[in-house]
Amino acid sequence: MNNALGLLKQRRFLPLFVTQFLGAFNDNLFKHAMVLFATYQLFKDPASEQNFNALATGLAILPFVLLSALSGQLADTHDKARIIRIVKTAEIGIMLYGAAGMLIARTGYVTTGVVMMLSAVVMLGVHSTFFGPIKYAILPQHLEDHQVLGGTGLIEAATYLSVLTGTIVAGWISVEWAAGLVVVVAIIGWFTGRLVPPAPRSGPELVINFNPFTSSWHLIAATMHIRRLFLAIVAISFFWTIGSVLIVIFPVLVKNVLTADQQVASLTIAIFSIGVAIGSVIINALLKGQISARYSPASVIAMALCVLAFAFEAKAWVPAPDGTLYGVIDFATHPQSLLLLATLALIAIFGGMFVVPLYAFLTTTVTKDQTARTVAANNVVNCASMTIGAVSVILLTKAGLGPTDMLLIVAAMCLGSAWLAWRLHKACDDGCPA
């Protein structure tokens, strides 16, 4: 990992790292500030809160399903650094619009404000769709082959640490401060994005297919027929289906099961983000620069056991007195909190250990002129799966299932991810990087 950290001193990596960090921080600051605002101030019952969160999650990832194919084609045909500059310019306008929606909802025009916030989430999804393939596909162009796994681990760690900081800040500042901060961070990201070195196309120029449906189908068909890529993408997608369920239910679980305030909700999601970053570092050290799925099955089985334990711990939780919520101090000194938070951290650590090698696998087992399209195909399938996860939460909520019941479903889904990762490892015994 020390060798990987050395990349932070180099112009070919640092501006991308910082730009990615700021973009993910801003995206999560806005989304979490919006979700906490809706959960704790705009809505008053668990079902409405959970449905709003599911809708926001679904809208955020819908652009990935529709536009990832186009984004992958553009990234493999044009200079990736130029696309980054265009995307970061658009982010400033999106954040101005979303911030206005927050302030409008805060002043009492709830419907108008909610519509503006949710439409800003869609636009942020478009922004992330066009940036997503680049942050991984640019690494094989700027780094040596033996540095790609370390660079991928750093990008993943930066992503989750930015989720951490964005989540913490969202829980501790007012809506008004959040509205101003997202605009400021977008402007800073615009400057750092301009420092990313050029990354022109590596292969022949493509004929761009602008039809989102046929381009997505052709992209997936061109990638998923390769067995090792099929297994890697499906395993990652299964994992993010699990992730989408957790994202939706967590604020509601904290408020209505753990009976804690929005600062505690922010704290728990922050701990989860720290855990994923730690898992990214651990798996890089275990694999010593090699790209292999050999630890992924055991990692996600361990994650399933921890999710199961977390569900039972939540069911046994002693709630706050009626009409009150635990603050951070009261929550931290609760006799059950230490075990619960430790279990949450382990869920995240094992999750990071599972998914990071699979992302590195996608970018190193194809030629450099195909990496963006491979990542884009992965994004399409991932986000379709996450949309299914978000819709499933809405349907399960209507069926009367609460957040702790959904944790049991998540634990069962982890076993499916373990089976897929095991199949991938076996498929790569002959001919894949080990």
TrEMBL record:
Primary location group: membrane
InterPro entries: MFS, MFS_trans_sf
Coiled coil: none
Keyword GTP-binding belongs to the record: no
Localization, UniProt: Cell membrane
Membrane topology recorded in Swiss-Prot or TrEMBL: Multi-pass membrane protein
The organism's place on the tree of life at top rank: Bacteria
Record's keyword terms, sorted: Cell membrane, Membrane, Transmembrane, Transmembrane helix, Transport
Transmembrane segments: 52-71, 92-109, 177-196, 229-253, 265-287, 299-318, 338-362, 374-394, 406-422
Protein name: MFS transporter
Species whose genome carries this gene: Sphingomonas hankookensis
